[in-house]
Amino acid sequence: METIPVPNILARRSVRRYTSEPVSEEQITALLKAAMAAPSAANRRPWHFIVVTERGTLDTLAERHPYAKMLFEAPLCIAVVGNPAVSDYWVQDCSAATENILLAAAGMGLGSVWLGVHPRAEREQMVREVLGIPAGLVPLCLIAIGHPAEHPPARTQYDPARVHYQHW
Amino acid sequence: METIPVPNILARRSVRRYTSEPVSEEQITALLKAAMAAPSAANRRPWHFIVVTERGTLDTLAERHPYAKMLFEAPLCIAVVGNPAVSDYWVQDCSAATENILLAAAGMGLGSVWLGVHPRAEREQMVREVLGIPAGLVPLCLIAIGHPAEHPPARTQYDPARVHYQHW
Is the pTM of this model over 0.95? Predict the structure, then answer.
């Protein structure tokens, strides 16, 4: 069993600028292994992943999603798709898988950003159409990924006001 | 800025048996720093965390949640609570924060397991009542955490049938 390390969980930042260097097939597979190592309720794994590297499709997603201009530049997009018929925890499970992809990407020196789709119905419909996703399945998000051309520093946004001890 | 490493993302497994050793305050703070380093839509951070170490409260949660018997043994439970008024991506954001806690715990040699609450209305109401969570806020999950007394091996559940290239 290989190892997918994340040297510093605080170093995962949203990265929206990328170089033109492609992400290798080995890296893509490692990202998907990290995704599918996420926990899921009753281990139902209500997820699918669409790997997009074709420039035309990336450009279409960039044009039609209101906040995805970085896909004009990113060499890779992974769409995370949930199956609500398999689990009513699909949003949680697909979100954990998404976070694993973001962290694994950071761990291998890639930059990435989570682009929200669900619960915006018009974005869901657009992604379903562009990527040919069957009715009944729901795209949770798009993830833009590439070699980073910007390097935001590690941080936490730890706020003690959000922490309650023993009771609210 | 400190570092919170995850030596192997594939080594995070659900751990349901713990020793009686408590989790230190430093470890609890590091888990919360990892949680609040998660991304959130428009950086709204629609989350709160309730840290429970009192045996009586842990036992009450164990008794009243249908699948949380491990809280009779766990020295620590973190309840992740979302604020839907702040963001309609709160489930995604709180799930990413939860996954960060699970991974950071594994990285520091702790064991943990995600116990589903939302969207089960009766569990939400129970947790709200036991922990005094204000109306309008929603407990997403409970996380049982402790020093592991079982050691499931690293794995991915990578399934090539869940991967689609360019298009569904």
Answer: yes
